[in-house]
């Protein structure tokens, strides 16, 4: 089975694709294009980017009929070679899409390659019609400069490719694995410093997980001239899109690079191999509902940040800032009062990656990471840690490839807990239900020498009156417990305001009408900020880092 992909007019962003394979006499061929991709549990409908699909066989053109929105079928009357030809519009430049321009070819094969019913275990060749000057970054074996080999369909669609003339490539080695760092775009950071830090957090992750069963691993990084932040995990690689590129000459940019890279590397074990049963194996034709978002992304978010602390990249102060940002993103929405993380995980297919209606859900990333922090502190009281839980998950469910359920992760945590009943209550109250995690963290953090307080934000509208606006004064969010919730509406525009002893006087435009609205001041902090501090017990926090 062979794909040939060409780019006759790169500026058009059209990939021309031809799939060739041998059909048996009277074989019915069913072509299924993926409707979603790993790492993003929402329907993407990649078929919308396909144009002019045609099938030909030994006797010429054959009619292919669409059976669903992203599935085609045809009948092979004779034995022989058959060809499927089509165009794909590659104009999505993020870590999960495909993109073509005169300087690069970037393809996630999951966007545009068909699975063929009953034939997904066949070997697949991919011939890339590229300029001779292009370098190729991909986890698949490269036979010559332009021919890739995949052992089966799953390996193909889990191996994105980036090809370009100006493609920077560096390698660092940890134990027996070569870690390739590919970067397309302008380089504003110091390579030696970046590779040193990559090596340090990689060493710490492998140390705790025990092994890294890969000869090579690839970080494929797009440095973009505009703001962007996205990463997607794969079996032997990750694609990361970041910007603006000039930011990476500064600490802020390097923090973003290190944060997302550590996160994606931890996915090598967690999700790519320690995988929920509901996505084991992948069926890309329909939704695969899962309850395990807490583990898939919450654990990965927490551990990715923690290993930057453990490796020495994050200072204590910087790690506190990371925790503060997690709390702001998690607790400044009241979604935690309305939906558990289990239900929010299930609803990923519904609205998981959109803002959604106000205060409906929690993030499996940020809220999940804080739940894992709480578990880690509770485990620490018994001399155990979350990395030991994940090592057990790796041994039981990752290396065996059998997949796990939420109950299996809970059992692994219970096996290391000192007070099993307390941990069971934690899962019932905070994982399956909507317990107040902030209050719990205020009680747990002193056990590792930390404290956290909610403080007033600098913006008085936000802090004192529960009103969040964009730079033009249009309302984006209103705290449901504030007086403003009863008088203001989302998309109202605040024209001006005056703070008085009694409260605040607002001039508001709503649907073309000007309104005068008064709100009382009641002294409560609505949308605030969070501050994490040491409370003198430095040995407890050192133990948290090093145990």
Provide the descriptors you would attach to this structure in a database record.
seven-stranded mixed β-sheet, Neutral Protease, domain 2, 14 helices, 547 residues, Immunoglobulin-like, alpha+beta, Zincin-like
Describe it for me?
- This protein is α+β, with helices and mostly antiparallel strands and 547 residues long.
- It folds into 4 domains: 2-163, Sandwich (Immunoglobulin-like), CATH 2.60.40.3650; 166-249, Zincin-like; 269-452 and 531-546, Neutral Protease, domain 2 (Orthogonal Bundle), CATH 1.10.390; 458-526, Pdz3 Domain (Roll).
- Helix content is 29%, strand content 29%.
- The strands form 7 sheets. It has a 7-stranded mixed beta sheet with strand order 5-4-8-2-1-12-14. The chain has a 5-stranded mixed beta sheet with strand order 16-17-18-20-19, covered by helices on one side.
- A hairpin with a 2-residue loop joins strand 4 (50-57) and strand 5.
- Helix 3 packs across helix 4 and helix 10 (406-416) packs antiparallel against helix 11.
- The model has no long low-confidence stretch (mean pLDDT 96).
């Amino acid at each position: 089975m062979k794909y040939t992909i060409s780019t006759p007019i790169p500026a058009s962003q059209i990939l021309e694709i031809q799939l060739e394979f041998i059909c048996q006499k009277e074989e019915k061929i069913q072509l299924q294009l993926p409707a979603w991709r790993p790492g993003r549990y929402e329907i993407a409908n990649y078929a919308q980017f396909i144009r002019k699909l045609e099938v030909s066989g030994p006797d010429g053109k054959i009619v292919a009929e669409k059976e669903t929105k992203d599935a085609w079928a045809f009948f092979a009357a004779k034995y022989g070679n058959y060809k499927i030809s089509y165009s794909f519009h590659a104009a999505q430049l993020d870590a999960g899409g495909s993109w073509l321009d005169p300087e690069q070819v970037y393809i996630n094969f999951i966007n545009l390659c068909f699975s063929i019913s009953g034939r997904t275990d066949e070997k697949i060749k991919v011939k890339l019609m590229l300029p001779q000057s292009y370098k190729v970054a991909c986890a698949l074996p490269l036979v010559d400069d332009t021919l890739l080999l995949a052992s089966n369909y799953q390996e193909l669609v889990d191996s994105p490719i980036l090809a370009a003339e100006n493609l920077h490539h560096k390698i660092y080695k940890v134990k027996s694995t070569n870690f390739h760092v590919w970067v397309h775009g302008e380089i504003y950071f110091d390579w030696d410093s970046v590779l040193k830090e990559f090596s340090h957090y990689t060493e710490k992750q492998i140390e705790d997980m025990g092994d890294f069963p890969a000869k090579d691993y690839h970080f494929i990084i797009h440095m973009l001239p505009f703001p962007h932040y996205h990463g997607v995990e794969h079996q032997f690689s990750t694609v990361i899109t970041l910007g603006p590129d000039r930011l990476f000459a500064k600490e802020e940019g390097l923090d973003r690079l290190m944060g997302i890279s550590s996160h994606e590397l931890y996915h090598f074990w967690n999700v790519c191999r320690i995988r929920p049963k509901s996505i084991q194996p992948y069926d890309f034709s329909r939704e695969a509902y899962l309850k395990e978002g807490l583990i898939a992304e919450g654990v990965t978010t927490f551990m990715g940040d923690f290993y930057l602390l453990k490796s020495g990249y994050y200072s204590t102060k910087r790690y506190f800032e990371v925790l503060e940002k997690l709390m702001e993103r998690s607790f400044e929405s009241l979604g935690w009062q309305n939906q558990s993380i289990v239900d929010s995980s299930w609803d990923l297919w519904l609205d998981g990656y959109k803002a959604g209606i106000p205060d409906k859900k929690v993030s499996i990333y940020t809220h999940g990471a804080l739940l894992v922090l709480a578990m880690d502190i509770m485990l620490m009281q018994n001399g155990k840690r979350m990395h030991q839980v994940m090592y057990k998950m790796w041994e039981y469910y990752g290396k065996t490839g059998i997949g796990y359920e939420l109950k299996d992760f809970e059992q692994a945590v219970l096996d290391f807990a000192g007070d099993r009943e307390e941990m069971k209550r934690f899962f019932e109250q905070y994982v399956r239900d909507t317990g107040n995690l902030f209050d719990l963290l205020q009680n747990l953090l002193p056990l590792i020498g930390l404290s956290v307080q909610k403080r007033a934000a600098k913006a008085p509208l936000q802090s004192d009156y529960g009103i969040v606006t964009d730079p033009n004064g249009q309302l984006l969010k209103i705290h449901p417990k504030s007086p403003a919730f009863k008088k203001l509406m989302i998309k109202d525009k605040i024209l001006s305001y005056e703070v008085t002893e009694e409260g605040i006087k607002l001039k508001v435009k709503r649907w073309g009408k000007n309104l005068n609205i008064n709100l009382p001041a009641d002294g409560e902090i609505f949308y605030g900020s969070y501050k994490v501090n040491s409370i003198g017990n430095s040995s407890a926090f050192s133990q948290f880092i090093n145990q």
